[in-house]
Structure formats: C-alpha cells, structure tokens
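Changelog entry

Holo records now carry the ligand SMILES as an explicit input line rather than a separate metadata file. Below, a converted record for adenosine-5'-diphosphate, shown in the new format.
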Amino acid sequence: MDLGVGEVGTPGNSKPHQPSGQISHLALDIGGSLIKLVYFSTYDDVDDETGRSATESLSVYNGNKKYPALKGRLHFAKFETTKINDCLEFIQKNQLHLGGCQHLQSSPIDKTVIKATGGGAYKYADLFEEKLGICLDKEDEMDCLVAGANFLLKGIHQEAFTYMDGQKEFVQIDHNDLYPYLLVNIGSGVSMLKVDGDGKFERVSGTNVGGGTFWGLGRLLTNSKSFDELLELSHKGNNRVIDMLVGDIYGGMDYSKIGLSSTTIASSFGKAISDSKELADYRPEDIARSLLRMISNNIGQISYLNALRFGLKRIFFGGFFIRGHAYTMDTIAVAVHFWSKGEAKAMFLRHEGFLGASGAFRSYGKRGLDDLMLQLIQQFPFTASPAGDI
Ligand SMILES: Nc1ncnc2c1ncn2[C@@H]1O[C@H](COP(=O)(O)OP(=O)(O)O)[C@@H](O)[C@H]1O
Ligand SMILES: CC(C)(COP(=O)(O)O)[C@@H](O)C(=O)NCCC(=O)O
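Structure line, unchanged by the conversion:
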C-alpha cells in the first residue's frame, strides 16, 4: 500500500492523487483552521507479473492465517475550514462518501455514515447532511489524535524524525518501546497529551498560543494573503531587528552567570517598544520571522516543561502549524534541547497534520478495518512518500 498525498483548497498546491479504484473509508478531521481528509482506494490496475487485476481477491498467508491480498492507497487531502464548500464539492465530485461504510447500526436508516472528528464534526454536521446527505459519526478529537499518532508511528516506515542544525534524521520506532511519550499537537490551539499506550492517554496541558495565533497575528501584522506567504516571508526575515536580545540589554555582552548568550532573545518584539518606529517601518519579513520564532519557542518550552513533569524523554510534535518548515522545527528542537539540557528529544512526524484524520480513519476498525489495515501494512509496507506539501 502506498500513500497518495496531496492537498487542495489553497492556490499553488499539488492536487491529490485522483483515485481510480474503489474508494472507501473516508474519514474527516474538521479543525478550527483546516479540514483534513483521509480515504482509501484500491488500485484498479493490472498486475504486470500475474496479469490479474490488483483488486482481485488473491489470498496470502501470514502464519496460519489467510488474508485476501488487496492493493490500495491511502489518500490525504486538506482544505481551509473557511472554504468548506470546496471540500464538500471535492467529496461530491469524487464520490468519496459513497464507497462502503453505509448503514452503520447506530445511524438513521438509509444514511451513509462517515467518521469525523474535530470541533467541525459538531459544527458542520447539519451542513454535511444537507449538502451530501451523509451523517457524521463523531469520534473524540483527543482519542483520534492518539490513535492516529500510534497508527502512523507503528505502521509507517520513517514516520518520525529529529531535526537539528538543518539535518533531518529518521528515528527507528521500536514498537515495544514506544510508550510513554508526549504528543504535542499544534493546530489552531495546542494540546499536549501523555500517551501510555493504545487508547491510554491523558491530556496534560494545552496552550491557546498556537498555529491560529501565528497565522492570525501574522496576517494582521504583515498583510499576508495566505499561510504559505507568511511562512515564505519568515524565510527572508531577521528577527533581531524586532526582538530585544540579551546583548541589547547588556551592552553587547553575554549574561553568562545565568547561561544567557548575548544573542539569546530576551524579549520577543521587545525592540518595538524602544524604537520610535511605526508598524509600517518594519519589514513584513522580519515581523514574520520574529512571530514564528516567538510562538515556536514558547511551544517548545511548554512542551519541555510538561515532559519534565512526567519524566518523558520523547516529545512528538504534530499539527499543521509545523508544515515541515525547517525554521519552525529547528526553533522547537533547539528550545527542547536547550531547556532539557539535551535530556529530551523533539521529534516530528511526516504526516504531522493528519493525526486526527488518521485516528478517525482507524476508528472504522471497530467494524473490521483494523484487520484490513493489518493486512495492508504487512503486505504492502507504506512507501516513503512525503506528507502534505512537505
Ligand atoms: N493552508 C493553510 N491555511 C491555514 N492555516 C494553515 C495552512 N497550512 C498550515 N496552517 C497552519 O496550521 C494550523 C492548523 O493546523 P491543524 O493541525 O490543521 O489544526 P486545526 O485542526 O485546528 O485546523 C493553522 O492555524 C496554521 O497555523
Ligand atoms: C480546543 C482544541 C482542542 C481544538 O483543536 P484544534 O482545532 O485547535 O486542533 C485546541 O485548540 C486546544 O487544545 N486549545 C488550547 C486550549 C487550552 O488548553 O488552553
């Protein structure tokens, strides 16, 4: 099985792979900023070697257990929540909601039921029913985040990686030594969960300064028209123009007694108070850089403090705020490394933004999907295709 990856709804992004086989198990995560979709499609092609259709029911054995071989692809797509109509149109056009999973016992008669999580599963339930005639079967957001993280960490080769000094290093996940870990999901807001096993977790903290804060404040301060534009600006900026550094306060010197170098940020945006400058006098690039650094640093620090609270050494960061963005990951990793004195490790996920949707997808397992997934993972290891537009 491989991972078809793409996104729609934002200009300039790659289109999702158009499924040619049979589609099933559409799952949604409707968040404060983005709607994430995960769905499965079988290949509709012919196997070169056997000449048989790849969707034909072949049998393979694992130990004594017989499994039908099914070739397929997991698809990932995302839309801005404000453009929910584009998402509905995409589902409708590709008939994503019609393949399988109809008439769950818990559903009203004759309604197609789709697994959905996130606040929007409640907020937009009527809209989905009205526009697509489907009923959203709501799964708890925290349950889905954890289920999705465990599913991806265990099922996908090279899902997790560290990022330090511009170097990405994949982490080998030992299934028997995965727990406990801290899961930090940076969506519109931030949730921090201590994960002790499959379905065993506690939400230990959160912060309202998250991805929505970066995008919201960034939009107001820089006039950026899209999240990508804001990220792009941050690439070219210099935060020292706006941030007050230790050296600015200490006349260029380190404050070595407490371990602060002259280049450490003493106060994010602090220079803006001492300057007689207006907003328009600052370059949007510098503002974007300073904002990204402030928010990433703060999340890294709170995450470390929570890891410390529970003696956790591994912190996995998910959520679409990260976007595989080098500077974001670097800032978070440095914050965790700095505060933990190298004791704790920040790790990132290739399918960072799809944890909740993957968890909702996996929740079809209650109706036998786990078996299907198990077969697929065993027979067709996930390919190392990147997630989102990383
Ligand atoms: N194309 C985009 N449009 C808006 N926000 C984006 C985009 N790409 C990444 N983001 C960032 O991701 C955050 C949302 O992350 P996500 O994990 O989807 O959370 P939620 O479930 O709250 O929507 C946004 O607040 C923003 O910081
Ligand atoms: C309310 C939420 C769980 C919603 O999830 P989201 O759409 O942001 O992914 C999240 O925004 C959050 O955890 N906010 C932080 C709230 C707090 O603990 O202060």
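Spot-checked after migration. Residues 10, 31-34, 80, 118, 187-188, 211-212, 214-215, 227, 319-321, 323, 353 surround adenosine-5'-diphosphate (ligand 1) (CB under 6 Å). The two ends are 20 Å apart (CA to CA).
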